[in-house]
Amino acid sequence: PSIRKFFAGGVCRTTVQVPGKVVVITGANTGIGKETARELARRGARVYIACRDVLKGESAASEIRADTKNSQVLVRKLDLSDTRSIRAFAEGFLAEEKQLHILINNAGVMMFSHSKTTDGFEINLGVNHLGHFLLTYLLLERLKESAPARVVNLSSVIHHLGKIHFHNFRGEEPYRWGFAYCHSKLANLLFTRELAKRIQGTGVTTYAVHPGIVRSELARHSFLCCLFWRLFSYFLKSVQEGAQTSLHCALAEGLEPLSGKYFRGTYIRNLAKVAFLYLRASFPVTARGPGCLQGPEITKQLSACGMSAVSF
Ligand SMILES: NC(=O)c1ccc[n+]([C@@H]2O[C@H](COP(=O)([O-])OP(=O)(O)OC[C@H]3O[C@@H](n4cnc5c(N)ncnc54)[C@H](O)[C@@H]3O)[C@@H](O)[C@H]2O)c1
Question: Family assignment (predicted)?
């Protein structure tokens, strides 16, 4: 058990209750998002599960309602791979709710095949970053009106392997080794940093999160990743443990001065760092064209802006 505890990482220790607060969580019908929704519902929030499959969302919501005795767990349709769906969700939400206190941009895909969103963007970047970018933009005024409010973006430690290919947002050239997911997670991080700057002084703050390596459904599109997840499942976090960093950023008091920072509630950070440095050295990715910002340059720029990780 002590080894398990070592790998489990930080725990959200705040006892803050949030009755009456309005929360939107994307992709909360499964995995980390579902557990985040459960805990926020337990603490009294009105929780919107924004997901692609309303039936699956309803089944998660009824489980959470029964578990937490909070009837204010609602499901709304949102497909982040389609800007029309994002606009329709935002329009419906803004008509229905006068307040929004916490937005958790949690949904994510890890796809290795060369797919695109409805609007023609590379699928990982399109869903994980561009979709959430548009959603946040459409809800930002409501967040400001409800301040103090927070935006939590799920990134990943794997952003270390990411690069921003400005010339390749539509996936004209396939990415090597499924790096598209890494690029999208780097975009989540950069978005958090820039958003924090632009909303400074409005009472809305934002945080990026690495939840740890979590036993969820994220790897379902890749046989190799599924195999890895199964082989090492003992060392991976449970979804409840994986939700702790998002919960910490959504709830903990006094985080406002840390707006724009990247949070990791995990004790395995140094192991992860060594592994990623090794990977980066083993598979150096060369620049492709003028619009490409390289990983090491980005890391340098991020740390110059105080974007090093905060552990709790
Ligand atoms: N599991 C991990 O080890 C890990 C590590 C680092 C970061 N993350 C991040 O944590 C977040 C949650 O992932 P998870 O591990 O719970 O995986 P998960 O697959 O269980 O959950 C992802 C959710 O996103 C939803 N989703 C996917 N595409 C969508 C779309 N187009 N529109 C709306 N919803 C969509 C899925 O339906 C699902 O509910 C993701 O952003 C992921 O990148 C996970």
Answer: Belongs to the short-chain dehydrogenases/reductases (SDR) family.
Tokens of 238: 């449970």
Task: Per residue of the chain (312 residues), give pLDDT as tens.
Answer: 455 555 556 789 899 999 999 999 999 999 999 999 999 999 999 999 999 999 999 999 999 999 999 999 999 999 999 999 999 999 999 999 999 999 999 999 999 888 999 999 999 999 999 999 999 999 999 999 999 999 999 999 889 889 898 888 888 887 776 799 999 999 999 999 999 999 999 999 999 999 988 989 898 887 777 887 788 888 888 999 999 999 999 999 999 999 999 998 754 444 455 555 555 555 544 434 444 555 556 656 556 555 556 766
Whose Cα sits closest to atom 39 in ligand 1? 27
For ligand 1, mutation pick of 24, 26, 64, 109 (most atoms within 8 Å of CB): 109
Interface predicted TM-score (ipTM) over 0.95: yes
CA of 114 to the centre of ligand 1 (A): 18
CA of 154 to the centre of ligand 1 (A): 9
User: What does the alpha-carbon distance between residue 279 and residue 282 come to, in Å, rounded to a whole number?
Assistant: 5
Characterise 142 by phi-psi region: left (phi > 0), alpha (psi -120 to 50), beta (else).
alpha
This prediction has a pTM of: 0.89
Catalytic residue chosen out of the listed positions 48, 175, 181, 207: 181
Q: Is 248 exposed, middle or buried (0-12, 13-18, 19+ CB in 10 A)?
A: buried
175 among known catalytic residues: no
Tell the residue nearest (CA) to atom 40 of ligand 1.
108
Handedness of CA 213, 160, 150, 130 (dihedral sign): negative
Domains of the chain: 2-311 (3.40.50.720)
